[in-house]
Amino acid sequence: MQRKDLDHLIESFRKKKQHRLHAKYVAGILKNACQQLKKLPNLNQVSTAISKQVTVCGDLHGKLDDLLIIFHKNGLPSAENPYVFNGDFVDRGRKGMEVFLLLLTCFLVFPDGVYLNRGNHEDHVMNTRYGFIREVKLKYKHNADRLLKLIEAVYRWLPLGTLVNNKVLIVHGGISDATDIQWLKTIDRHKYVSLLRPPVIDGVASTSENVNKLEWKQVFDILWSDPQRGDGCVPNSLRGAGTYFGPDVTESFLNKHGLLYLIRSHECKPDGYEITHGNKVITIFSASNYYETGSNKGAYLKLVGTELKTHFVQFMSSTKSGPSVLTFRQRVGLIETSAIRELTTKINNSRNKLVQQFSTHDPEAKGVITVTEWCDSMMQVTGLNLPWRMLRSKLATTDPSTGLVHYMSTFQENITKRECLGI
């Protein structure tokens, strides 16, 4: 493919809102991309020696307008203007296929200018739940099954992350206290058809007995994890996959591998980016108006010079092409689930103290306490003066016959919370 093909594709997608690239050409792009991706290592190697800078983009989630804004503001990719796209290209937005095809075409035209990382939504199981499968079937009714198989093949060969100057690691989700770069470099990434299913080896799905769960966890953690404010590393109970990793985990990981900082995506931020863990973890999110029109800015990050200094550029796509405005009830629901997520993190960080406090009300170790005792314990340990009685139903279960709270359920994975976050 050549530059003129890319220009034509961009113009077609930009001007003709309902343009559908013929299935024959879609299949060609997917096949060629798969062939080229196979040649790449698990971790892309990017250098600023020639370009003097590199641009990092976060989640796009099928929002074509945001991708076109980035190209308009920052220029098309090239060896002199390289990009790293950090996963989650599809799902939720209506233009997932167009975004995916544009990124793959850029990769084919400028192999030294485009680096693609796998995200947790480059996954058939996630696509089934969050819209991309429906989109492909709607746009390519007669060729959907064939195209979906080719898309899955591309997913399996996407690199797992990117190293810039061997000084900055870019992965979609984050890390855990077990993450090891040397191990990640040696994994057969192709066998992970879906991170939510056992790996496939030589065309045969692994069983729970023969799967290398520690290796599986290596990939899971970098695609699904989130940073937390407190120290330590705990299972990411809200997502049901990956970990919450603290500043101490980040510091140890960076020191071990001689890195300056970590860049990740995976979470929508009001400003399009967020800096945490003492400026050592950067979250970049490039889908503006993610929840509703005006809900958040998108952003991309430029790493400049050999020192890889950071420069953030914010933007917001036109509200005319943004998603429809949510109802008041939907908006309240989004705010509530975001708050529940933050609260769950704090609760998990305080687990040992909470268990100790709960136990003072349960001298016979029956595992249950009154609602009042549960609320008092939550307020005392977390220091948060919240309407705990009202929040109890979202955070813990009660015995239907006695009304007493099963206090250990406060720490158990709550599928309802994970579903309402749409992750």
How does this model look, in words?
- This protein is α/β, with parallel strands linked by helices.
- 40% of the residues lie in helices and 16% in strands.
- It has 15 helices and 19 strands.
- The chain has helices spanning 3-15, 23-37, 64-74, 96-109, 124-130, 132-139, 144-157, 181-186, 213-224, 247-257, 328-349, 351-360, 371-382, 388-395, 415-421, and strands at 43-46, 53-57, 83-85, 114-116, 161-164, 168-170, 200-201, 204-205, 226-227, 233-235, 243-245, 261-264, 273-276, 281-284, 298-304, 309-315, 368-369, 397-398, 405-406.
- Strand 3, helix 4 (96-109) and strand 4 (114-116) form a beta-alpha-beta unit.
- Helix 1 (3-15) runs antiparallel to helix 4, helix 6 crosses helix 7 and helix 12 packs across helix 13.
- The two termini are 35 Å apart.
- The model is unreliable at 331-335 and 413-423 (pLDDT under 50).
Give the fraction of residues assigned to helices.
40-55%
Classify the secondary structure makeup into a structural class. Answer: alpha/beta
Counting DSSP E segments of at least 2 residues, the number of strands comes to 19
Strand content: 15-25%
Q: How many individual helices?
A: 15
State the shape.
globular
End-to-end distance: 35 Å
* Unreliable runs: 331-335, 413-423
Mean pLDDT: 89
Biggest beta sheet attributes: 6 strands, mixed
Query: How are the strands of the largest sheet arranged?
Result: 1-5-6-12-14-13
